[in-house]
Amino acid sequence: MSSTAPQSPSSPSSPSSPSGSALALAVDLGGTKVEAAFVTDQGVVVPGTRHRSPTGPQRTSDELQAAVDEVVTATLATLPTDAVLVGVGVGSAGPVDEERGLVSPLNMPVWRGYPLRDRIAALVPDGVPVTLRMDGLAITLAEHWVGAAQGSDHVMGMIVSTGVGGGLILHGRTVSGPTGNAGHIGHVECGGFDDPCACGGTGCLEAVASGPKTVAWAQRQGFAGTTGEELSAAYAAGDEIAVAAVRRSGRALGQAIAAATSLVDLEVVAIGGGFSHVSPDLFTYAREAVAERVEFGFVTKVRIVPTGLSQDGPLIGAGALVHRADVLR
Amino acid sequence: MSSTAPQSPSSPSSPSSPSGSALALAVDLGGTKVEAAFVTDQGVVVPGTRHRSPTGPQRTSDELQAAVDEVVTATLATLPTDAVLVGVGVGSAGPVDEERGLVSPLNMPVWRGYPLRDRIAALVPDGVPVTLRMDGLAITLAEHWVGAAQGSDHVMGMIVSTGVGGGLILHGRTVSGPTGNAGHIGHVECGGFDDPCACGGTGCLEAVASGPKTVAWAQRQGFAGTTGEELSAAYAAGDEIAVAAVRRSGRALGQAIAAATSLVDLEVVAIGGGFSHVSPDLFTYAREAVAERVEFGFVTKVRIVPTGLSQDGPLIGAGALVHRADVLR
């Protein structure tokens, strides 16, 4: 991933924005890194404003906060003089406590009920609002805004990567629930799968179909590789175990999407994240599993599509928490 | 079930209502019968106004329509002279097409895309609005209005009976989806279960935990009974197979509720329907399965409670489609 927005036609060498433009400070806190950048009201990451710093389970609480401070401060320093900072959007790995602005990311065990929203608010000028939501919700807003789910009011955004997460827009508005944790599609179970999940569930989608879990399953069948990239290459070469592994995860994806559609009547599911690129066939297997729900046209109607966003998706989503506040609830 | 409202203090021998009261004509179309009655704006079925007629898979389309005509006409004839008919609410077995008012109940195969809403509209005075929704949504409105989910804005109502259905209220408003079929909790899958479902899914809650499916599983283990009532009696007597069967279905219920809560962050799930009364322990097993989701406080927080409604629930729910239109979306 480059440090500038790959889809932007502007030069990456200097910050630029339309005169007087309204910018959101977007912050994305994930399991391996925290990033910040400015996002325009057209859903574009402003070139030259993007900064990142590593996170992860080994870091202390102070180190994590220092990483956040570093990227926020560095991005703020790039605010064009003719731009207006209209708000801060923070997408965070979950679970979260939306009302109080607290985060408890599963893979950052030193942060439990950590007041990330207020800590970031202290870094920006007084009066600039800070909105914090789960990263899956932010990405869903981005798909709805400028991605693959434009024009639909009944959307699930998904990330299939180290974990499996997501978010919901129903009847044209975000659904975050009383605590802010709606959208945990990774912990919808898949019938016929008994893989134990770290959450305590059985056959949860994340326990079956995340990148690492898919590779681990392939390894148990004799696959010699250790990464999703190797699995992808083996799949493309027709390796039988790799094919079985990708098919298994794709079917689990489809089963969980069928369950979610049964429950909330989705129109479109947009899937991004590193492991979603393992093979286009992952989507085929998912669609096949959905198509087996022959009795329910309202289930088989759901469209499963690749993300319409670049790797800037999480930042665009965090920016959408500001620019698309009318869709938020 | 009696033909009058058991919770009403009024005499069942004659129709009565407060002077000038606003009444909804409530219609509930189910797999075994269709019922109609007037429901007050306090959520009470008006005594003496309730009528029913059998439905079921053996009946022709004309016979089904005649059954609907009969109960609607008979109830209309009981409208107190000092009451105002403010609307008609129809709760129907699904799937439905909410926008066009069509029904396609799974166990009434002669009705596919049947224009039930408009057929009922033709029976009532011009200008009286008719609102049609899935029965699971109607019952959820009733739980939210006068039942076990009062005071919560994040609710799933469920019926566990011949099938397993439900409905959702999220952020204080009903969620029905673009087609009207949100709430099909019976077709959320349960990890580790591979029971084939009539919908085409695997391990769907309905395929595991409906009354008939639970009895059938027990029979395969050697249970000699044939009904949910017999299973209930055997459970109460400590029969090992009956205990295993109720435990299995209760755990599946809990797993599906945990999945649903992961996805939409529920506060309370209210469960009614004939088989929900098989034993209070059904709820204990369901709660135990939810409690195993140890990593997610937002999942384990969900309260699973018995319905707060009498057997009038479906009619009260249909009435709520009129009286609680502000909660509808």
Give the arrangement of secondary structure elements.
The structure is a homodimer of 329-residue chains.
Chain A: E1 22-29, E2 33-40, E3 51-54, H1 61-76, E4 84-92, E5 96-97, E6 102-103, H2 116-121, E7 130-134, H3 135-146, E8 155-160, E9 164-170, E10 173-175, H4 205-209, H5 211-220, H6 228-236, H7 240-264, E11 268-272, H8 281-291, H9 297-300, E12 303-306, H10 313-323
Parallel strand pairs in A: 1-4, 4-7, 8-11, 11-12
Antiparallel strand pairs in A: 1-2, 2-3, 5-6, 8-9, 9-10
Helix pairs in contact in A: 3-10, 5-7, 6-7, 7-8
Short description:
The structure is a homodimer of 329-residue chains. The first copy, chain A, is of the alpha/beta class.
Give structural notes.
- The structure is a homodimer of 329-residue chains.
- Chain A has helices spanning 61-76, 116-121, 135-146, 205-209, 211-220, 228-236, 240-264, 281-291, 297-300, 313-323; strands at 22-29, 33-40, 51-54, 84-92, 96-97, 102-103, 130-134, 155-160, 164-170, 173-175, 268-272, 303-306.
- Chain A has 329 residues and is of the alpha/beta class.
- Chain A folds into two domains: 22-134 and 312-323, ATPase, nucleotide binding domain (Nucleotidyltransferase, domain 5, 2-Layer Sandwich); 148-306, Nucleotidyltransferase, domain 5.
- In chain A, helix 6 (228-236) packs across helix 7.
- Chain A starts with 21 loop residues before the first strand and ends in a 6-residue tail after the last helix.
- At the A-B interface, helix 7 and helix 9 of A face helix 7 and helix 9 of B.
